[in-house]
């Protein structure tokens, strides 16, 4: 099938199977990783990293409240390897799930079966960051991570009835023809969600002098994935300088956009630009974005819990309310930051 026909087909399948367009926010629990040697990762440029960069739980919860108010989705809770123990991750997940009213996805590294079985219904699914199409390239890119452990992690998630996701970075030396291998993994492990990013060449990494992959290649991979898997959830990452990719990615089968820095976007010219991409796309689509990227007045310094939540935990809710002053303090400084950004950009 040629490129134009494939794009058309991918668009039709996405229209048939989905109603919404999502803005997805990965909530970071830390800016620390004990591995720090994945070749594309900016953390690999940080030589000595004591366990700093852990976020306070109040700031994580403050961000979750704001994400909910803007009607975005929490893509997953994310952290590097070796940051938190299971109990901590589970508590944070319960808090974020109570705030958004939905169980959360995790992207916090490989967890063994015993650890995974300690979670309850606060978790919807787990993410295996395989990063690329083949084990061979993965081993070169991520020397301290284990492909077999990631696959085993997916098996364990299946046994425990969790959903399963993958993350892939495009432009790190993969071959287009190896996409078939990725599709085998999606099929064999019954993957529910895939997040594609395009390479952001970080200074100090071997990719420093690379460029991000061409937009048509990105769209080609997304559309091919949609055609192969009409019902899989596809999330696509963009960087601040690639907002014009949003419309084409949505056409190619993406369900949601992620990765851009929300503090820079919300209420600013960048947020306006992203909104206009979505509005233009909505003229040819029945899918809808029900949230906002621009309306600062939606962000209130109040702890509001959802009215009809899928996930609810009265004990955690009480704990959050007991800490409300600290959380509101964080929310207030985030909102001030966004307003300051607003003034700069308009
Ligand atoms: S495991 Fe994740 S955070 Fe750690 S170095 Fe690799 S990509 Fe970076």
What do these coordinates show?
The protein has 346 residues and is α/β, with parallel strands linked by helices. The protein has one domain (3-345): Aldolase class I (TIM Barrel, Alpha-Beta Barrel). Helix content is 42%, strand content 14%. It contains 13 helices and eight strands. The protein has helices at 3-17, 57-69, 86-100, 113-116, 135-141, 147-159, 179-188, 215-228, 246-252, 262-265, 269-282, 314-322, 324-345, and strands at residues 22-28, 73-78, 104-107, 123-131, 163-170, 193-198, 233-237, 256-258. Strands 1-2-3-4-5-6-7-8 form an eight-stranded parallel beta barrel, surrounded by six helices. Helix 1 (3-17) crosses helix 8 (215-228) and helix 2 crosses helix 13. The longest helix has 22 residues, at 324-345. The site of iron/sulfur cluster has 11 residues, from loops.
> In oligomeric terms, what are we looking at?
single chain
Low-confidence stretches: none
Total number of strands: 8
The order of strands across the largest sheet is 1-2-3-4-5-6-7-8
- Report the CATH C-level class: Alpha Beta
**Cα-to-Cα separation, first versus last residue:** 45 Å
CATH architecture verdict? Alpha-Beta Barrel
Average pLDDT, to the nearest integer? 93
| Fraction in helix | 40-55%
Topology:
Layout: H1 3-17, E1 22-28, H2 57-69, E2 73-78, H3 86-100, E3 104-107, H4 113-116, E4 123-131, H5 135-141, H6 147-159, E5 163-170, H7 179-188, E6 193-198, H8 215-228, E7 233-237, H9 246-252, E8 256-258, H10 262-265, H11 269-282, H12 314-322, H13 324-345
Parallel strand pairs: 1-2, 1-8, 2-3, 3-4, 4-5, 5-6, 6-7, 7-8
Helix pairs in contact: 1-8, 2-3, 2-13, 3-12, 8-9, 9-11
The protein binds iron/sulfur cluster (SF4).
The site of iron/sulfur cluster has 11 residues, from loops.
């Amino acid at each position: 099938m040629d490129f134009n026909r494939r794009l058309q087909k991918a668009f039709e399948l996405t229209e048939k199977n989905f109603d919404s367009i999502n803005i997805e926010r990965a909530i970071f629990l830390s800016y620390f990783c004990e591995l720090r040697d994945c070749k594309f990762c900016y953390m690999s440029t940080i030589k000595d990293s004591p366990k700093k960069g852990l976020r306070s739980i109040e700031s994580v919860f403050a961000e979750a409240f704001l994400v909910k108010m803007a009607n975005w989705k929490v893509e997953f809770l994310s952290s590097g390897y070796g940051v938190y123990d299971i109990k901590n991750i589970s508590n944070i997940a319960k808090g974020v799930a109570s705030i958004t009213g939905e169980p959360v996805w995790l992207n916090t590294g490989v967890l063994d079966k015993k650890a995974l079985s300690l979670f309850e219904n606060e978790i919807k699914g787990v993410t295996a960051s395989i990063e690329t199409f083949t084990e061979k390239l993965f081993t070169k890119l991520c020397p301290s991570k284990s492909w077999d452990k990631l696959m085993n992690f997916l098996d364990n998630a299946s046994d425990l009835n969790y959903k399963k996701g993958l993350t892939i970075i495009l432009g790190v030396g993969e071959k287009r023809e190896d996409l078939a291998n990725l599709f085998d993994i999606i099929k064999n492990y019954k993957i529910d969600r895939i997040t594609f990013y395009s390479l952001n060449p970080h200074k100090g990494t071997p990719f420093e002098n690379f460029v991000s992959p061409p937009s048509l290649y990105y769209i080609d991979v997304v559309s091919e994935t949609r055609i192969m898997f009409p019902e899989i959830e596809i999330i696509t990452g963009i960087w601040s300088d690639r907002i014009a990719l949003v419309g084409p990615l949505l056409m190619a089968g993406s369900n949601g956009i992620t990765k851009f820095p929300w503090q820079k976007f919300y209420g600013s010219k960048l947020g306006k630009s992203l909104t206009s991409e979505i509005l233009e796309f909505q003229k040819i689509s029945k899918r809808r974005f029900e949230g906002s990227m621009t309306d600062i007045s939606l962000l209130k310094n109040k702890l509001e819990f959802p009215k009809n939540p899928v996930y609810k935990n009265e004990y955690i809710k009480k704990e959050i309310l007991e800490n409300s002053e600290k959380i509101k303090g964080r929310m207030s400084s985030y909102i001030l930051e966004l307003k300051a950004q607003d003034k700069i950009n308009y």
